[in-house]
Amino acid sequence: MLVLTRSRTQSVMIGSDVEMKVVDVRGDKVRLGFIAPPSVAIHRKEVYDEIVLENQLASQLRPADLAPAGQSKGTTEMDPFLRAAIEEAKKGLSEGGLPIGSVLVRNGQIIGRGHNRRVQHGDPMAHAEIDCLTNAGRQKTYADTVLYSTLMPCYLCTGAAVQFGVPKVIVGESVTFPGGEGKWGKSPDFMRANGIEVVDQHDPECIEMMTKFIRDNPALWNEDIGVE
Questions:
Q1: Which is catalytic among the residues 88, 129, 181, 205?
Q2: How far apart are CA 34 and CA 10, in angstroms?
Q3: Which residue from 48, 60, 105, 168 has the fewest beta carbons nearer than 10 Å?
C-alpha cells in the first residue's frame, strides 16, 4: 500500500487520466474530488463491493432460470405488455437516453406508455415509470392496474407505485439493478412490504440491453441511479 500525505486542495494523479484532490478535511473525515474521463467509473469501496457481488450472483444464473425475450418464466406464452415496455426502452436508447421502458395496463389494455427521458428532457425526475404514469394522465383509481417496467423500479418510481396504490408491478429484470426491491441487496423490499405483488420475469433481452448500456455508459448510468 502506498501512503501519501496531502494537504487540502493538493492532488494525487492515478495513472495519467485520473486526478484525486483533497477537497476538505472535517475531523476524521476527508472529502475527496475526482477528475476522470467518462469511461472510468468511480465508486465508494462499499458500493463497488456490492456491485461486484450483484454481478457475481448474476453470473451464477443458469439458462433454465431465464425465459425467452418477453416471456414469463415457466410459461410458453409471450407477454405483450413486457414487449411493449421493451419497445419503449428501445425508443429511449434511440433518442440518446437510457433504455428503460414502462407501460400501465388496465383490463388488458395499455393506458399509458413511457420511457426514461432524463437526458432528452434534462429532467432528473423523468424516469420511465414516472413518464408512463404522467402520460396515462389522471386516474380515479389505480387499484385495477398493472405497471410494467423493463427494469426493477428505483426508490423514486417504487414510491410512486406505492403512493398511487398500484397493486401489481411486473419487471423485465433485476439482475443489473435491484432498484427499490433492495438497493444493492441491503434495503427492505419496499414494494412487497406495502402490499404490491412484484413479478420478476428475468427476461434475457432486458438483461442484455441494460448490461450493454451500463458497460458502455457507466457515468450516465451512475448519474441516473444517484451513485457518486
A1: 129
A2: 12
A3: 60
Q: Is 129 a catalytic residue?
A: yes
C-alpha R_g of the chain: 20
CA distance 12 to 61: 40
Measure the N-to-C terminal CA separation of the chain; round to a whole number of Å: 24
Q: What is the pLDDT of residues 75-109, one digit of tens each?
A: 445 589 999 999 999 999 999 999 999 999 999 99
Spatial distance between the Cα atoms of 131 and 101, rounded to a whole number of angstroms = 9
pLDDT at 10: 86
Whose cell is 428503460? That residue is: 100
Q: Which segments in the chain show pLDDT lower than 50?
A: 63, 66, 69-70, 72-76, 181-188
**86 and 70 in contact (C-beta within 8 Å)?**
yes
Cell triple for residue 103?
407501460
Distance (Å, whole) CA 22 – CA 157? 35
pLDDT for the residue numbered 40: 62
The answer to whether the beta carbons of residues 70 and 79 sit under 8 Å apart is yes
Number of residues that this document lists for the chain: 228
| Cell 433481452 belongs to residue | 205
